[in-house]
Design brief:
The complex is a heterodimer of chains A (250) and B (223). Chain A is built from 10 helices and 11 strands. Chain A is 38% helix and 22% strand. In chain B, helix 3 packs across helix 5. Classes of the chains: A alpha/beta (250), B mainly alpha (223). At the A-B interface, helix 3 and strand 7 of A face helix 9 of B.
């Protein structure tokens, strides 16, 4: 009996505040880098991180419906604005931590040459994979960029929209899409695609990854600690290794 | 309902009808072979035919993608012939065919098994050819089950999602079906639009089931 009671006590006591389990909802483009950072953080603090990766628009929708999340990292400011307007995040905790650039990619074995984005309008590019351009940040950025170059109307019939940026990457990796526009960090990470054209940061849309503590979080202090860690020199080094542009700590 | 939503509904009905038409001859034939004959490899064929029913639809989609993708064995040939499958309406039809085929075969097979072999034998002794026996004895007696199988296959095609999104994507105006449009609306938080499409899907299912029931009753088939 005593043993059973002791066991029960141990089970009940285990998840107490000392060690937090944090739910992190993060943009799909952060999948690999955050998975490399997670063990570093878990070792340093004893906290456990549970990730939910997806299109930022989908993450926002999930948070609106009450999905468990302590920290949210979106790939654009608009999505975060929509959460802030609904008071679903702690506004004071919000900060932009990263930036990125766009890249036009082709399958690794493709001989397609893309000297300028205008080549996307040519007939030998039959389809162009993007993240969904109405709601998913990577798609919205790509659309904004092509609009600025007055190319959007010409390429729109070829667009194959994916659920998130990694879906667009996969369509090019498999060779089923002739080209795609994704973040440079996604392109760098994949061995199956080739960057045909890099969109210079000065010309492309301004890409920002804001992070914030979720208002419903029951462990906001632990969430803030994770946010601070993501801006630590150690984490920033890992982000740079993956090709992200790191924003200075405000 | 917006024009785009009506377009989605019309497109879904068209591709589901085409899918059902395309699988009908093969599905009825396979069902008949499974119901009437023993042949080597029969249980293997049974398993393969039933597989899409028990596999996760996404897995069926993946197999189709590997088969007809531009680097797949079939896809390479089609690509050389200038036929695009992946991310086109053809992929939607293909996914619907694969996913609804088992339902058609199951429905028809049971129907054929219930036809008394005696009637077929009598017709044959009276000099009717195999083909004539099949068309004038077997099919009419099994019609109720065959129509049931076709309606079920059509309804399954209308609702197809998992395999479709893998091979055909979710392209507005090109591959977006009712189920994909509903998924999109849910993701974007357009619940009212999703409910409108839900209403249409329910109406289609109701009409399909009701017409098939009514048609069969008028033929005087036993209840």
């Amino acid at each position: 009996m005593n043993l059973a009671a002791a066991l029960l006590l141990a089970v009940l006591a285990a998840p107490l505040p000392l060690r937090a389990t944090l739910h992190v909802s993060a943009a799909a483009s952060l999948t690999d880098v955050l998975q490399e950072l997670a063990p570093l953080y878990e070792k340093q603090t004893g906290d456990t991180l549970l990730f939910n990766f997806g299109a930022s628009s989908l993450l926002a929708r999930q948070i609106r419906e009450g999905a468990p999340a302590d920290l949210v990292i979106s790939a654009d400011e608009l999505t975060m604005d929509s959460l802030q307007q609904r008071r679903l995040i702690v506004a004071a905790s919000r900060r932009s931590i990263l930036s990125n650039t766009l890249a036009i990619i082709v399958p690794g074995d493709s001989r397609m040459k893309i000297a300028s984005p205008a080549d996307l309008a040519r007939d030998n590019i039959r389809n162009l994979a993007l993240a969904e351009p109405q709601s998913v940040p990577a798609g919205i950025y790509a659309k904004e960029y092509l609009r600025k170059l007055r190319l959007w109307q010409k390429v729109v019939p070829k667009v194959v929209p994916a659920d998130n940026v990694r879906g667009a990457l996969a369509a090019v990796e498999s060779g089923n899409a002739d080209a795609g526009i994704v973040y440079k960090t996604d392109a760098l990470h994949s061995k199956l695609v080739r960057i045909a054209y890099e969109v210079p940061a000065s010309v492309g849309p301004e890409i920002s990854y804001p992070a914030a503590v979720v208002a419903d979080s029951k462990q906001p202090a632990a969430a803030r600690r994770l946010l601070d860690f993501l801006q630590s020199p150690r984490a920033q080094g890992v982000f740079r290794k993956y090709g992200f542009l790191v924003k200075p700590r405000q | 309902m917006s024009a785009a939503e009506w377009h989605v509904v019309a497109f879904t009905l068209r591709v589901a009808a085409l899918s059902t038409l395309l699988i009908a001859p093969l599905g009825v034939g396979v069902a008949w072979l499974l119901a009437r004959y023993r042949w080597p490899g029969k249980s293997l064929a049974e398993t393969v035919v039933t597989l899409p029913l028990v596999l996760p639809p996404v897995a069926t989609g993946l197999l189709l993608l590997k088969l007809v993708g531009r680097r797949g064995p079939l896809g390479q040939l089609l690509d050389r012939a200038g036929v695009d499958v992946v991310f086109t309406w053809r992929a939607v039809v293909l996914a619907m065919m694969a996913m609804s085929f088992p339902l058609l075969v199951r429905g028809c097979r049971v129907a054929f098994e219930e036809v008394n072999v005696r009637f077929e034998q009598v017709a044959r002794t009276l000099g009717a050819s195999d083909w004539r026996v099949f068309l004038t004895i077997t099919v009419p007696l099994a019609l109720r089950g065959i129509v049931g199988g076709l309606v079920l296959a059509f309804a399954r095609a209308i609702g197809e999602f998992g395999a479709t999104i893998v091979v055909a994507g979710n392209i507005p105006g090109r591959t977006r079906t009712l189920a994909l449009a509903m998924y999109d609306d849910v993701q974007l938080g357009h619940d009212d639009a999703a409910f409108r499409l839900l209403g249409v899907a329910a109406a289609i299912a109701f009409v399909a089931l009701w017409t098939s029931e009514a048609a069969l009753r008028r033929r005087g088939a036993p209840r």
